[in-house]
Amino acid sequence: MKRERSSFSNRIGFVLAAAGSAVGLGNIWRFPYLAAKYGGGIFLLVYLILAVSFGFALMIAEISIGRKTGLSCIEAYRKLHPKFGFLGWLASLVPIIITPYYCVIGGWVVKYFFEFLRGNAALAAEDTFFSSFISVGESGILGNPLFWFILYVLLNVAVVLFGVEKGIEKASRIMMPLLVVLSVGVAIFSLTIPGAMEGLKYYLLPDFKDFSTTTVLAAMGQLFYSMSLAMGIMITYGSYMKKEDNLEKSVGQIEIFDTAIAFIAGLMIIPAVVAFSGGADINAGPGLMFVTLPKVFGAMKGGAIVGVIFFLLVMFAALTSSISLMETVVSIFQDKLHWERKKATIVVGIGVIAIGTLSCLGYGPLSMVKLLGMEFLDFFDFISNSILMPIVAFLTCILIGHVVGTKVVSDEVETSGHFKKKGLFQVMIRWVAPICLVVILLSEILKVLGIISV
Ligand code: TRP
User: Fold this and answer.
1) Which residue, by CA, sits nearest to atom 12 of ligand 1?
2) Considering only CA atoms, which residue is closest to atom 2 of ligand 1?
3) Which of 134, 201, 296, 381 is 20 to 30 Å from 337 at the Cα level?
């Protein structure tokens, strides 16, 4: 097949680009709050097992599909099997749901950057600061989360409109390594806070009492989210990968990179939250990072400055991901409705603001609205991570494992070297992953409906 797609110039370029899109708020904001909420060590253990088994198999499958077909997600699924075109659509729905609320969190990050920049480090570390901010309890426009959310969306729209993604990417090549170094520093400091050792134990030592299918579902949703799986993204990345680059090795490196950053973020936050709140804040949910880190910086000499740099770097990590999310949504509109890029970008921007506003105000003026007992942001997060992505992953396993056959993928991997974990890949995609997915999804649905209570 003749390929007209441009490719990454070398394998490391591919790994960096894929990792750059994968590393974002998922690692720094989402992983720590889930790990804290779902039992610490047990969540970490389940996450790691899933990453090297199921995550590995699914990422290999998606990148291979992309490289083999040279197409992006909707067309790629259809090309593999005409009846599976719908799966491409289903997968595309995920970034459409994620982008608006991702930008809400992006807005929170910009707000914290701004507060640290103007010397309000002590204020940000106060107990009620975060809750008063998201419930729109502060006065003035700068205290309103809607302002920061819209600002963040406009920033993304501007980057996509003026086509300066390359600039952001270049900047983030410097910012990302800095973020890693700074995070390691902050994590080490966190561990010196009196009382942190209790938290470290909670984070690292699994307690099997806390294990349930919900732990597995949460860890799996997080794995998909963090590695941008089960949403068609890795198919698109694969379509730009060169035939001769080693696919299996690249997948391993992306996974290690992504997991390492999430692990370090957990080290920064979880021991500290136990130290400061004695565990009371462990269930803080989406606000955990924003409640805990300012306190860590508050306890640190020069923490006010470290905070400015830290939130600036997190902003870059978030931007590279949200720009790539927005790009994905824009290209879905472009391809399907044949809109020109400018129109598609503006319409997507307006849509993101409209839908994201619900999530943004869901902890304040709209807090009386609950969907399945959740606020808007938690609800959108739940629908995409705990429902849609597992379904997409399940159907992908069926398509590869039982409809077109695993050979499609293993042949593709073998064009660029020996497929070392072929056996693992086949067993995971054909049997283990789909069976586990069905069991977990069913038990969760029965739980939500109140039929079982485990
Ligand atoms: N993986 C990203 C993170 O950890 C979030 C994300 C999900 C994403 N889907 C994506 C990023 C698609 C880019 C493209 O934050």
Assistant:
1) 325
2) 22
3) 381
